[in-house]
Design goal:
Elements (H helix, E strand, L loop, with lengths): L4 H9 L4 E3 L11 E4 L3 E5 L18 E5 L6 E3 L4 E11 L4 E7 L1 H4 L3 E2 L6 E2 L4 E10 L5 E3 L4 E9 L29 H8 L1
Antiparallel strand pairs: 1-6, 2-12, 3-4, 3-6, 5-11, 6-10, 7-9, 7-12, 8-10
């Protein structure tokens, strides 16, 4: 069941859902708006080799770019960058989150996630956004702009193992800025 604004406020008041910072004006009828933080991870196009090997650490493929207060970052057509929410989010053992884009941004061709829209119970940290421009023109990104929304759903029962539990292979617990893929760690875990 998707939580209503009333239930979201109750869960926040009880400290079960934590959103920091939280602007109460960002609580929508069944979601909470989240904002774009300053740091972006941009792919280096000159890096060798010219392919992505999912078995390798990809940290060297990216460089950090910061959005200045009043100057936008231009996301070019077909470009992909990683960003993160300004808000840190913490979920209890019986609630999951769904990250979705803002309709107004989708209407101009800005997608905020490819596949990472699911926020597990037990999650703590800033959400990494997978920003893509599918329009024919560059799109401006500003620090602090409303970039997406998170809805919350109650599980049928509390999860037995939470995100971050040892043995699950959780790779992003506690992240505070955009984080490159750590998929390569799955190969090491599968060997063990």
């Amino acid at each position: 069941m998707v939580l209503s604004d009333r239930t979201i406020k109750e869960e926040i008041a009880q400290g079960r859902i934590v959103i920091d910072p939280l602007d109460p004006g960002c609580i929508q009828p069944a979601s909470v708006d989240v904002h774009l933080d300053r740091k972006l991870l941009v792919f280096k196009t000159w890096h060798h080799p010219f392919y992505i090997d999912v078995k390798q650490n990809l940290d060297d493929l990216n460089e950090v770019v910061e959005i200045k207060d009043d100057s936008p970052f231009f996301l070019n057509p077909g470009e992909f960058v990683l960003a993160s929410t300004l808000e840190s989010i913490t979920l209890p053992d019986d609630i999951v989150g769904r990250l979705e884009g803002k309709s107004s941004l989708g209407r101009i061709g800005l997608l905020i996630h490819s596949t990472a829209g699911y926020v597990d119970p037990g999650w703590r940290g800033h959400l990494t956004l997978e920003l893509s421009n599918v329009a024919k023109l560059p799109i401006t990104l500003y620090y602090g702009m409303r970039i997406g929304q998170v809805s919350f759903l109650r599980l049928s029962s509390p999860a037995e193992r939470l995100y971050g539990d040892e043995g699950l292979g959780s790779k992003y617990q506690g992240q505070v800025e955009p984080t490159a893929s750590r998929y390569y760690k799955d190969f090491d875990r599968d060997k063990a």
